[in-house]
Each structure stands twice: as structure tokens, then as C-alpha cells.
């Protein structure tokens, strides 16, 4: 018996999907706490957070995105029932785009032995099962494709000694790969400096991963160029000391990312979203800075990406991050102001509906990505709408639980 879920009945004509403002009349006066933010447009009752947006050739039902979150719950890279329930809950909760966790393009590119992967065709079917489920709720499923570089082979953060090296008898590996033979910190391995031939192999692995992502039915793919993993370690002058074509100048250090984007763009359909996450600021004086990001963003737009996902940090063990609510939003804002036509998402300590709305209404970003707020409350979009006095659909089967 096929247990795959699809609606076993025709959908009611007045029902749309979780997280879409309902077809019922909306309140005629916005609640006071939102009023100030949306007064620019007196006609608009629904804040941008709950308005659809088209980026590239994809329309999202609202602006709420599930930020990629490693679950460290896979064996041999396979997603399983945990991931079905995990992502399925976000789909029921009303997010518009659900980015599945960093999934390794090769086994040694995993952060831990329990990471998910996309390095072989056998990974496709279990992914497709989850993607199909998510798509039932008019959410777009996307996935982050990644290589952990010199930060590979560690213990999942929620286990004892989290982030320490994983011993080889527990599934760790010693052949970690990087831009230059410089360890992330004194507890991590010195990576093998990739040769130019090996770099070509990595680019091919990203390309093959994107082909598999497409076959699994995803509507979005995100290349992980942030947080000190392989691509980020090539971008930064603190971790990339190469003297060949892939190091030295800005062009040299960005070459790996640009070649990966070119290879993925070549196989990734134009009617699906192509995204890149970068660490906009390294938070060390001699490192990668927001000016570099803006310059890179212009190149990435020309190369055909649809959205730049603006995160920060993770490449230096000596970073000093000034953590505060919305602390990474200024990076998204700079990119949005200076790179016209490129979709921009903001992430990091955006916790409340008011904070999310303020970012969007002030045109500081196009999308709001949430990670920990959605772990605390996968129904954050529905609760946000309720707190704003908006009537949005919840998933059909839960209609009787709707706030009235
Ligand atoms: C459990 C967990 C796993 C994460 N895994 C990833 C990941 O796979 N890829 C990634 O780029 N960021 C990852 N992150 C970072 C988040 O995507 C996000 O950028 C960060 O948590 C800041 O957003 P927040 O304040 O809404 O949590 C992870 C964060 C958490 C909490």
C-alpha cells in the first residue's frame, strides 16, 4: 500500500494553504502596533510578511523562510522519518520556503558523520518523499548543498564535546579538505590543501548535487558559501593563502564560488530558485568584509543567482560578533540598496513578528529567514498572523483549531 500523503478529496474552493491570508474579509483597521509600520500605504492591510513575492521565476506565498538547520540525524547521508516530520511540520506551520539542512556534496564534506548528503543517486528517493509532502501545502521545498571544508568531521553540537573532532573509531575521518593547510583552531585538523584538479572535482560534485536536487523535485537550491565551510574558507584572506588561480586577489579567492555557481546554473532550471548563502562579514579586522560582499553580490547577480542569503561569521575562531536583535540585517540592507534586482534575505535574531515586519516594510530585505524561532514554534507564521490580527489559512485538517 502506498502511504504517501496527497489530499484524498477535492479541496474546498475557499481554502488556499497554511500562511496565506484567508479569503474571508480582513479587519478593516490594522492593529495599532502594525499601523505605524504600514501607514505608508493606507490601502494595504496585509503586511508584506504575508504578501506573496516573486523572485526569479518563483512566487512564494509569503515572505517567511525556514533557514537551513542541520539535524545530525542521518545515516550515510540519507534523510528519514525525522526529516519528514521536521520539514512537514514547517510546511503545516505556513512558511513559504523551507530550506532543508546543509547536505554534503561528498562524504568528506560533512560537518559530522550524521549530516545529510546528496552525493549519490540513492539519496534522491527519500528526499523526494519529503519534498512531495511539503509541496502539498504550497510551500516551496529547497535544500542547501554544502562542503564543510576544514570544519568537517566534528561531533554534533548537542552531543558530548559538541564541535570537537569526531574520532575515527566513531565515524570521523582525517582527510579533511581546505583552501590552505591552516586549521580552524587548535582542536581541529589541518586540512589538506586542495589541488586544482581536486577543486575541479569539488565543482563537479556541486553540479551533480544540483542535478540530484532537481530530480528530487525541489523548487530551490542554496549553495552554502558561509560560516567558514569550504567555499567561505576560499573567500577569506585569513584562511586562503594560496598563490595559484584560486587565491591571492579578490578574483582568485572568489573563483571557486563563481565556478560552482556557473556549474550549478548550467544544470539548474530557470523556473526554480538559485540561492547563495554567504557570511557578509567575518568579524575580524584582516578578514572578509561587507564591502567585499557587495562586490561579490554584483558578480553573483550577473552569474544568474536569484537570492543572496545574508548571514555572517564562522570562518575565524577569533571573531568578535556584536550579537543583538537584527544584527545581520544591515548586511542584507547594504546588498539590497547596492545590487538592484537581486533578491535578498535577512537572517539572525529576527524573533518577533514586529521585527520581521519592520525589516520588510523598511525595504531592508525581501525575505525573512528564521531558524531558532521556528524550532521553538514551527507554527510561528500562524501565531504571528494571529498576533497581528490577520486571518490566514492554517492547514486544512487543523481548521477546527483556528483562533476565532
Ligand atoms: C540547529 C541549527 C542548525 C543549523 N544548521 C545550519 C545549516 O545547515 N546551514 C546554515 O547555513 N546555517 C545553519 N544554521 C544557522 C541558521 O540557519 C541561522 O542562520 C542562524 O541560526 C541565525 O538565525 P536565527 O537567529 O533565526 O536562529 C543552523 C542553526 C541552528 C539553530
Would you spell out the secondary-structure blueprint of this structure?
Layout: H1 32-38, E1 53-55, E2 58-60, E3 64-66, H2 81-93, E4 97-104, E5 116-117, H3 124-135, E6 140-146, E7 177-178, E8 192-193, H4 196-215, E9 220-225, H5 230-235, H6 250-267, E10 273-279, H7 290-302, E11 307-311, H8 329-338, E12 343-347, H9 353-361, E13 367-370, H10 372-376, H11 380-387
Parallel strand pairs: 3-4, 3-13, 4-5, 4-6, 6-9, 7-8, 9-10, 10-11, 11-12, 12-13
Antiparallel strand pairs: 1-2
Helix pairs in contact: 1-9, 2-3, 4-6, 6-7, 7-8
Bound molecules: flavin mononucleotide.
Flavin mononucleotide (FMN) is lined by residues 67-70, 101-102, 144, 224, 226-227, 277, 311, 347-349, 370-373.
Structural overview:
The protein is an alpha/beta fold. It has one domain (32-398): TIM Barrel, CATH 3.20.20. The chain has helices at 32-38, 81-93, 124-135, 196-215, 230-235, 250-267, 290-302, 329-338, 353-361, 372-376, 380-387, and strands at residues 53-55, 58-60, 64-66, 97-104, 116-117, 140-146, 177-178, 192-193, 220-225, 273-279, 307-311, 343-347, 367-370. The strands form 3 sheets. It has an 8-stranded parallel barrel with strand order 3-4-6-9-10-11-12-13, surrounded by 7 helices. α9 (353-361) links the parallel β12 and β13. It is globular. Bound molecules: flavin mononucleotide.
Give me some keywords for this one.
404 residues, alpha/beta, 14% strand, single chain, TIM Barrel, 13 strands, 8-stranded parallel beta barrel, two-stranded antiparallel sheet, binds flavin mononucleotide
Short description:
With about 400 residues, this protein is of the alpha/beta class. The protein is about 30% helix and about 15% strand. It has helices at about 30-40, 80-95, 125-135, 195-215, 230-235, 250-265, 290-300, 330-340, 355-360, 370-375, 380-385, and strands spanning about 55, 60, 65, 95-105, 115, 140-145, 175-180, 190-195, 220-225, 275-280, 305-310, 345, 365-370.
